[in-house]
Sequence to fold (347 residues):
Amino acid sequence: MQSLSIIQPDDWHCHLRDGALLKTTVSASASQFRHVIVMPNLQTPVKTCEEAMRYRERIMAACPESMRIGFEPLMTLYLTDNTTADEIKKMQEHDAIIAAKLYPAGVTTNSNAGIRDIEALYPIFEVMEKLDVPLLIHGEVADPSVDIFSREQRFIETILMPLADVFSHLRIVLEHITTIDAVQFIENASSKLGATITVHHLLLNRNDMLAGGLRPHYYCLPILKARRHQEALQKAAVSGNPHFFLGTDSAPHLRSQKERDCGCAGMFSAPVALPLYAEFFESMNTLDKLEDFSSTFGSCFYQRPVNKTKITLVKEEWQVPMEYTSTHHESIVPLYAGKTLQWKVKA
Fold:
C-alpha cells in the first residue's frame, strides 16, 4: 500500500504548553488532528472556565492562519482540592470546555496543585456524573514508597476501582495506559470507561530508555514499562475494542530541561504521531483498523460527531528533524529525532 486515506484523526490527550512554545506545538498538532483535548497542567494550572477560554484564545492566536479553520482545541479544567460545584456547572456554558482532569498531587509535571484526598472530591464527581462531564485521570499513585513501575497498577486497585463502582454512570478516561492491568481493567469495565494509548508506549519499552545508557528523551510519566506490558497495549490498540483510542500525550520540553541532572518527563511526539501510529498498525498487519482507533472510537466515547474531513498518509521515507527551534534559540527534541520514517502525512 502506497497511500492511505482516513477520516481526519483527533488527539484525545495533548500538552501544548503556553507562551512562546505555542508557535511550535500548535502547528505540529494542527497539521494532523482536527480536535485536540488540551491538558490544563500549565505552570499556573487552568482551574476555571475563564482561564480555560483565555488559554484557548492564546492557542488559536498561535495557530497558523492556514490551519485555523480545520483545528479545534477542546479545553479541560484542572481539578484541585478547592474545585467547586459551581465551576463544574459553568462548563455547560462553554462548548469548547469538555472535561475535567484529575492529577494526584505530585504525580507528574505541574501536578503539585493536584488532588491529595480523592475521596474528598467525591461531591464534585457526583456533580460531574449528573451533568455528564467526563473525568480524565492520570492514573498513578504519587506515593514514593511505591515502585515507579507499579504506580499505575496500585492506582487502579486502590483508587480507580472504588471510584468507578461508586460513580457507575460517570464517564472516565484512564489516560496514557501502560500496563496489562490497565488493559484488563478497561476490557472488563462498563461502557462508561475508556483509555487512551500513546504511540511511544506502543513502540517503546523500558529497555529502549535504559539499556546501553540512559536516554533522557525517552523518559516520560507514566514511565515506559516491560516488554510484556507493551505487548498488551499493542494487542489492545489493534483489537477493535472501541474503549481504546488515540491520545498522544505529546509533552514538549526544551532540550535544556530534558538534558540535565534531573530531567523532566515527557516526549514531544506530535510532529511524528500519525506517521508512527501508521507504522505501528502496518507492523501488526492491521492498517485497516487505524481509522477506527484514531478517528472514530474517541469521538463516539466523547459523544461528538465523527469528523467529515479526510487526511492522507503516503508511503514515503522522510527524516525526522533533530530538533525544532522554539524560543530564545532553544530547541525541542522530537520523538525519533534523526530517524527515518516510512509514512508521511500528505500536505
